[in-house]
From TrEMBL:
<dbReference type="InterPro" id="IPR051533">
    <property type="entry name" value="WaaL-like"/>
</dbReference>
<feature type="transmembrane region" description="Helical">
    <location>
        <begin position="44"/>
        <end position="62"/>
    </location>
</feature>
<feature type="transmembrane region" description="Helical">
    <location>
        <begin position="310"/>
        <end position="330"/>
    </location>
</feature>
<feature type="transmembrane region" description="Helical">
    <location>
        <begin position="94"/>
        <end position="111"/>
    </location>
</feature>
<feature type="transmembrane region" description="Helical">
    <location>
        <begin position="184"/>
        <end position="210"/>
    </location>
</feature>
<dbReference type="InterPro" id="IPR011990">
    <property type="entry name" value="TPR-like_helical_dom_sf"/>
</dbReference>
<protein>
    <recommendedName>
        <fullName>Tetratricopeptide repeat protein</fullName>
    </recommendedName>
</protein>
<keyword id="KW-0812">Transmembrane</keyword>
<feature type="transmembrane region" description="Helical">
    <location>
        <begin position="21"/>
        <end position="38"/>
    </location>
</feature>
<keyword id="KW-0472">Membrane</keyword>
<feature type="transmembrane region" description="Helical">
    <location>
        <begin position="393"/>
        <end position="411"/>
    </location>
</feature>
<keyword id="KW-1133">Transmembrane helix</keyword>
<feature type="transmembrane region" description="Helical">
    <location>
        <begin position="249"/>
        <end position="267"/>
    </location>
</feature>
<feature type="transmembrane region" description="Helical">
    <location>
        <begin position="123"/>
        <end position="140"/>
    </location>
</feature>
<feature type="transmembrane region" description="Helical">
    <location>
        <begin position="337"/>
        <end position="358"/>
    </location>
</feature>
<feature type="transmembrane region" description="Helical">
    <location>
        <begin position="222"/>
        <end position="242"/>
    </location>
</feature>
<feature type="transmembrane region" description="Helical">
    <location>
        <begin position="160"/>
        <end position="177"/>
    </location>
</feature>
Length: 572
C-alpha cells in the first residue's frame, strides 16, 4: 500500500527518480556482509553505506525545491544528539560510534523528503529483489540450508539475523503481489526456507499478522480461534527448545545484576554490551553458581533484548525517549490502521523481536526501521519549511566537499584494509618475518580500531615469539572487544613472560566467561600440572572428570580421559 502523504513539491524528472531508486537498492546491498571485492569481515557498518547515503543526500538537495522539518524530525534529532553526547562521555569513544547514528538520521530524513517517488511500492520491490537474491544465494551457492558457512559466504552475521531481516521485510514484500494466493505462497516459501531457523522471528511475524487481523476485524467470531492458535504456537515454540528461553533469562539476570547503577543516567556508551558482555558474565560466574546456570551460559555478545541494551548503554533518559517514540508510532498507526497495515505489521514484528533478540545489530534491519519511521511520519503539510536554494551556491559547494571527503575517507579506509588482507594471506609471518613486521608496524596504527584486526595481530606476534609486543596489542584488543579467545591468549602470553599469577587470573576469567566449556578448564589443569602445583591440578582434574558434558566431542572425551588417568596416577 502506498503511503504518499505529501504533494507539496513538483514531481522530479524520471532520471532523478531512477537514480534515487538505484541508490536505495545499492544502499540495501551495501548492508549485506558479502561484497566480494571488499574486506567485509572487518567492517561493522561499511563505508559504502556512507557513500550511497551521501549521494542520496546530494540527489535530494539538488532536486527538491524545499525541505520540510516537523515535530517527529525534531524529536529524532534530539534523541540522536543525546545519544551522541552519551557516547562522547565514554572513555572508549570513537567517532565511528557516532557516525552510524548520524547516517541513519540522514537516511530517514531523505526517505521522508522523497516519499513522492520513494513510495511503499518502490521499497517493496527493492526488498523483493534483495530477498530473492538472498534466497537464490542460499539455494544455489550454499546448497545446504542449515549448515551455512556464514563467515565465508554468508550475507549476514548468522542465520538468526538472516531470519530477522526476512521477517521484518516480509510485510513490505507482500504488498508487491495483488492476489492473496501469491502473498500466501511468498509467506510459506520464506517461512519454510529461512524463518524456521529463528523461532523468535517466526513467532513475531505470526503474532503481528494475527494481531493486525484481530484489531482490524475485532468483531469477527473466529478471533477466539486465532487467539487459541496463537497461544498454542507460542507454547510449542517455547517447548521446542526450553534451554534457549532459560538462557535468555539468565543473560537478562546477569545484565541487571552486574549493572552499574551510577551510569544509568548517561549509560556506558554505545557497543558496551557487544564488546564487554562476556566480562560481565565472567564477573557473575567468578563465584560459585548453580550447575544449571553454568550449563546455560554461552559465548554471546548480546543481551537479547534491545530495550535492556539501550538502558545499559545509553541511559534511562534515552530509554524513556525510545519508549515514547514507540507509543507515538503506534498512536499514528492506530489513527488509520488500514492505511498503515504494512508498516504496522513490519514495525510490530520488529518490536516483538527486539524483546528477545538483537535486530539492531543488522544494518539491513536498521534501514527497514528507518523506512518505517519515514512512512509513519505524520503529514508534512503543517511542518516548518526550509528553502535551501536561497543559498544554492554555498550549499552546492558544501555538498561537493562532503561527497569528496566521504569518497576520500572510504577509499583510504578500503586501501588500508585491502593491504592488511593481502599481508595476512601472504604467509610472510611464516616465511619472511622481517618483511611482515616492517609492513604490519606501518599499517596497523591506521586500522587499530578494528577489533578483529587487533586480535589477529596479537595472535601473530605471539606465534612469532614477540611476547611483549603481543601483550601490548592483546591488551588493546581486549579493550576493543573482549571474548574468550583474546582472554586465553593473554593467559598464555603472560605465562610465556613468566607472569604466572596474571596467567592464572586470565585462565580463571576465561573459565568464568563460558563455564560449560572444557578447554579453558583443561588449560588451567595443564598450567598447574606444568608448574608442579599438584593440589590445584588434582582439584581441577576432579572437576573436569565429573563435570557434565553439554556438547560431546572427541576432544572433550580425550580431556576427560587424560584427567582421569592423572587422578589414577596420583592416587597410587
Amino acid at each position: 500500500m502506498d503511503v504518499n502523504l505529501s504533494n507539496s513539491f513538483d514531481l522530479k524528472s524520471s532520471w532523478t527518480k531512477r537514480i534515487g531508486k538505484i541508490l536505495l537498492l545499492l544502499l540495501f546491498f551495501s548492508t549485506l556482509n558479502q561484497w566480494y571485492f571488499l574486506p567485509w569481515s572487518y567492517l561493522q557498518l561499511g563505508q559504502p553505506n556512507l557513500l550511497f547515503g551521501t549521494l542520496l543526500l546530494a540527489l535530494c538537495l539538488f532536486s527538491s525545491k524545499e525541505l520540510s522539518f516537523n515535530q517527529l524530525d525534531f524529536f529524532l534529532l534530539v534523541l540522536l544528539c543525546i545519544t551522541i553526547l552519551n557516547q562522547i562521555q565514554n572513555p572508549d569513544f570513537s567517532y565511528q560510534d557516532a557516525i552510524s547514528g548520524v547516517q541513519l538520521y540522514v537516511l530517514y530524513f531523505l526517505i521522508k523528503q522523497n516519499r513522492e517517488w520513494l513510495t511503499m511500492k518502490v521499497v517493496a520491490w527493492i526488498l523483493l529483489i534483495i530477498d530473492c537474491y538472498i534466497l537464490v544465494h542460499l539455494i544455489v551457492t550454499e546448497r545446504i540450508f542449515y549448515h551455512l558457512s556464514y563467515e565465508t559466504f554468508g550475507l549476514f552475521e548468522n542465520h538468526t539475523i538472516l531470519a530477522i531481516f526476512l521477517a521484518v521485510s516480509l510485510p513490505f514484500v507482500a504488498t508487491v503481489f495483488n492476489r492473496p494466493f501469491w502473498k500466501f505462497l511468498v509467506l510459506i516459501t520464506i517461512n519454510a526456507i529461512v524463518l524456521s531457523y529463528s523461532r523468535t522471528a517466526f513467532a513475531a511475524l505470526f503474532i503481528s499478522f494475527i494481531g493486525y487481523h484481530i484489531l482490524w476485524n475485532y468483531k469477527a467470531k473466529f478471533n477466539y480461534i486465532l487467539l487459541i492458535l496463537l497461544v498454542l504456537c507460542i507454547i510449542l515454540l517455547f517447548a521446542y527448545n526450553v534451554d534457549s528461553v532459560y538462557g535468555r533469562l539468565l543473560i537478562w539476570k546477569i545484565c541487571i545484576s552486574e549493572i552499574n547503577y551510577g551510569s544509568l543516567v548517561l549509560g556506558n556508551g554505545s557497543g558496551f554490551l557487544q564488546n564487554h558482555y562476556l566480562d560481565l558474565q565472567s564477573s557473575y560466574f567468578s563465584i560459585q553458581r548453580p550447575l544449571n546456570e553454568q550449563l546455560l551460559a554461552g559465548q554471546v555478545h548480546s543481551p537479547f533484548n534491545e530495550g535492556l541494551r539501550i538502558l545499559i548503554e545509553h541511559g534511562i533518559f534515552v530509554f524513556g525517549l525510545v519508549l515514547y517514540l514507540i507509543v507515538a508510532m503506534y498512536r499514528q498507526m492506530f489513527s488509520n490502521l488500514f492505511r498503515y497495515s504494512t508498516t504496522f505489521i513490519g514495525f510490530s514484528t520488529f518490536v516483538i523481536i527486539s524483546a528477545f533478540s538483537y535486530p539492531l545489530s543488522s544494518s539491513s534491519v536498521q534501514l527497514i526501521l528507518v523506512i518505517t519511521l519515514a512512512f509513519v511520519n505524520p503529514s508534512i503539510h503543517s511542518s516548518f519549511r526550509l528553502e535551501p536554494f536561497k543559498f544554492k551556491g554555498i550549499l552546492n559547494i558544501s555538498l561537493l566537499v562532503l561527497v569528496g571527503f566521504v569518497v576520500y575517507y572510504s577509499a583510504n579506509e578500503m586501501k588500508y584494509l585491502r593491504k592488511w588482507v593481502k599481508l595476512r594471506n601472504s604467509n610472510y609471518q611464516t616465511y619472511n618475518e622481517s618483511l611482515y613486521l616492517e609492513t604490519a608496524i606501518s599499517l596497523y596504527p591506521k586500522i587499530k580500531d578494528y577489533p578483529k584486526i587487533a586480535h589477529e595481530y596479537a595472535n601473530t606476534l605471539y606465534q612469532i615469539g614477540l611476547y611483549a609486543d603481543a601483550l601490548e596489542v592483546a591488551n588493546a584488543a581486549k579493550e576493543l572487544y573482549s571474548n574468550l579467545q583474546i582472554t586465553m591468549l593473554l593467559a598464555v602470553i603472560h605465562e610465556k613472560l613468566g607472569n604466572q599469577r596474571k596467567a592464572e587470573a586470565y585462565l580463571k576469567s576465561s573459565i568464568a566467561m563460558v563455564p560449560k566449556l572444557y578447554y579453558p578448564k583443561y588449560l588451567l589443569f595443564k598450567f598447574y600440572q606444568k608448574n608442579h602445583q599438584h593440589i590445584q591440578a588434582k582439584e581441577w582434574a576432579t572437576l573436569i572428570s565429573k563435570f557434565p558434558i553439554k556438547v560431546d566431542s572427541k576432544e572433550v572425551q580425550q580431556m576427560k580421559q587424560e584427567t582421569k588417568e592423572y587422578l589414577l596416577t596420583k592416587s597410587h
